[in-house]
Design brief:
The complex is a heterodimer. By secondary structure, chain A is α+β, with helices and mostly antiparallel strands. Chain A contains 14 helices and twelve strands. The longest helix of chain A is centred in the middle third of the chain and has 27 residues. Chain A folds into three domains: 190 residues, Winged helix-like DNA-binding domain superfamily/Winged helix DNA-binding domain (Arc Repressor Mutant, subunit A, Orthogonal Bundle), CATH 1.10.10.10; 60 residues, no CATH class; 114 residues, Alpha-Beta Plaits (2-Layer Sandwich). In chain A, the strands form three sheets. Chain A has a five-stranded mixed beta sheet with strand order 8-10-11-9-12, with helices on both faces. In chain A, strands 3-2-1-7 form a four-stranded mixed beta sheet. Chain B is α+β, with helices and mostly antiparallel strands. Chain B has one domain. The chains are: A alpha+beta, B alpha+beta.
Chain lengths: 407, 166
């Protein structure tokens, strides 16, 4: 938080007035605090108006309206004079040096030139005007950011029921909005994403429900913090919905869309996923797709679902190694060599889109996609040709079953 | 690096505009709240004879100044009322604050609101915003929620008044 209540370099005593947020006065580094000072009393109304317009002065009738509102007050001029007299006495008690702080001149009430007044809101306005006129973009940005961080809350937020305060509050809100937009644009041009994020955070707090989360989101996306961006979006959408029942998402999503690669993070995420899913090209691997049993099981289940729509015929084939008498091979050392040869033979004999799995020590499962029973026999012959070498007695026994769609 | 041409347009557009209205109550006889509402668009306050009227005035005023509203109007019972203001009492062009008057600060009047209602947006055929009464503030998500809060406020004040009388 910027301390705008500091003394200046010349050691001059200044009455620093805070009007962003809650009204407060500070003289010579000490806050002017009054017992039983209500937010909405005539003294506060008077001080707010006189100090805010201390440079130009305020009209008597105007001030009477502000102080007495529409109350029925007899002899308003005199009542105002009495009120000002009491206010001066009160200020003196609070620690201001001797003097007639508020005086009437040519129909305008003015604040004495002997005590310099600095009002944060007026300073904010001045810096904003300087920023608009600055030609150098660096200076412009510094001024915009300086003004921005001065906006510590709505103008006299706890006195918003007064018409002039309502208007000024609206004017400062619009100014703040412009400042944030301009500063964001300059930061964007310089690709200063960390400062843009900080700006967005501040703006979202200072002016809630104004979609300033867009800036944080933009900074996240530009710095590749896509998970953070997604989380921010979810949190913001939830917060807006819970607190206000409104949807920030449309505007936020529009902003992301306009950024170019809208939802870049999700595309990138999908790209990564797709890369992981894609089979590495390997020229040495030919024929069918060889996989583990859980994968085979998953493919089998998926294929049966797809069949529901496609209508193609799918066959499940079990290939078992047997000896010359037709019995499964028991000897481990023999089994290992034959099993490996059979795997190669099967993979070479089936099509690229068929699925192969080693089910047991001497057994393989093959899922033959989009084929006929006759073709299954052709596949068996091909496997035999590729597997049988010379006069070997070990053979392959086949069992084939049609896969049926159960849905 | 992206092309920010479109982005600049977004950033320079008015973001969620808000509108503050000041409300004060003059009577709560028979639990019917009467009072006045001062908007920052019109020089003079509008009178309301009940809280439902107050809500209708807020909506009509916002319509009259083109305050952002969700696509699609309210459903109506009779076709002839489609898109028409129902309660808005008068629309005198002289009563509208023009920019020059605002910039020359020619906008003061003696009205003081007991509470302020700020409408952030009008979605879901309703209103969303914030109500502030002194140091207390609460956000409302619908006109019904706002109505309840307004009743809370006048009830509170009524009970306080009765206590003082005793």
């Amino acid at each position: 938080m910027i301390d705008i209540m500091r003394n200046d370099n010349n050691g001059e005593q200044i009455l620093k007035v805070r009007m962003f947020g809650t009204f407060s006065m500070n003289y010579n580094g000490k806050p002017l605090v009054m017992k039983r000072l209500r937010r909405n009393n005539q003294f506060t109304n008077l001080m707010q108006a006189v100090l805010y317009y201390s440079e130009k002065g305020v009209g008597r009738d105007w001030l009477e309206d502000v102080v007495f509102e529409d109350r029925d007050v007899e002899n308003r001029h005199n009542s105002l004079r009495v009120l000002i007299y009491k206010a001066i006495r009160k200020l003196r008690e609070l620690g201001l040096p001797e003097g007639k702080y508020i005086y009437l001149e040519n129909g305008l009430y003015r604040w004495t030139s002997e005590i310099r007044v600095e009002v944060d809101a007026l300073e904010f306005d001045r810096i904003y005007q300087r920023a608009k006129e600055a030609e150098d973009n660096g200076e412009k940005l510094d001024l915009y950011l300086q003004a921005c961080y001065m906006y510590q809350g709505e103008f006299l937020s706890d006195c918003a029921g007064v018409v002039w305060i309502g208007y000024e509050s609206k004017r400062y809100r619009m100014m703040f909005q412009d400042i944030v937009c301009q500063a964001a644009m300059l930061l964007r041009e310089r690709e200063e994403w960390i400062r843009l994020e900080k700006l967005g955070r501040f703006a979202a707090l200072a002016a809630p429900f104004s979609d300033w989360e867009e800036l944080i989101m933009e900074a996240y996306m530009e710095t590749g913090r896509f998970d953070d961006a997604r989380r921010l979006y979810e949190e913001t959408a939830d917060y807006y919905q819970r607190e206000q029942g409104i949807y920030p998402s449309v505007k936020m999503m529009q902003a992301i869309e306009r950024l170019g690669n809208q939802m870049m993070y999700s595309y990138e995420l999908l790209d990564t996923i797709q890369k992981k899913l894609t089979e590495e090209p390997d020229e040495t691997v030919m024929g069918g797709y060889y996989c583990t049993f859980p994968v085979f099981q998953g493919i089998y289940q998926a294929v049966t679902r797809i069949m529901e729509r496609g209508g193609q015929a799918v066959y499940l084939m079990l290939c078992t190694l047997v000896d010359g008498k037709g019995n499964p091979i028991q000897k481990e050392e023999r089994l290992e060599g034959f099993s490996e040869r059979l795997r190669e033979a099967i993979c070479r004999s089936v099509r690229h889109g068929d699925i192969v799995n080693q089910f047991g020590r001497g057994q393989y499962l093959v899922l033959l996609i989009n084929t006929t029973r006759e073709n299954c026999e052709v596949v068996q012959e091909r496997i035999n040709r590729n597997f049988n070498v010379g006069n070997q007695r070990v053979r392959v026994r086949y069992h084939v079953k049609c896969v049926e769609c159960e849905f | 690096m992206h092309d920010y041409t479109d982005m600049k347009e977004i950033k320079l557009r008015k973001l969620r505009n808000t509108n503050t209205m000041l409300v004060r109550f003059d009577s709560y006889e028979d639990r019917v709240a009467e009072g006045r509402i001062q908007t920052l668009y019109y020089r003079h306050p509008f009178e309301f004879k009940s809280l439902d009227q107050l809500l209708m005035i807020i909506d009509d005023v916002l319509d009259s100044v083109g305050f952002e509203k969700d696509q699609g109007d309210f459903h109506t019972l009779y076709e002839e009322y489609e898109g028409k203001p129902l309660i808005f009492q008068y629309l005198d062009p002289k009563d509208i604050y023009i920019d020059e008057k605002v910039s020359s600060k020619d906008y003061v009047n003696a009205f003081r609101g007991e509470l302020t209602i700020r409408v952030f947006c009008r979605q879901n055929s309703s209103m969303q915003g914030e109500i502030r009464a002194g140091e207390r503030s609460a956000r409302f998500r619908s006109s019904l929620e706002l109505l309840r809060m307004l009743y809370e406020f006048v009830e509170q004040r009524y009970e306080e008044m009765m206590r003082k009388k005793q």
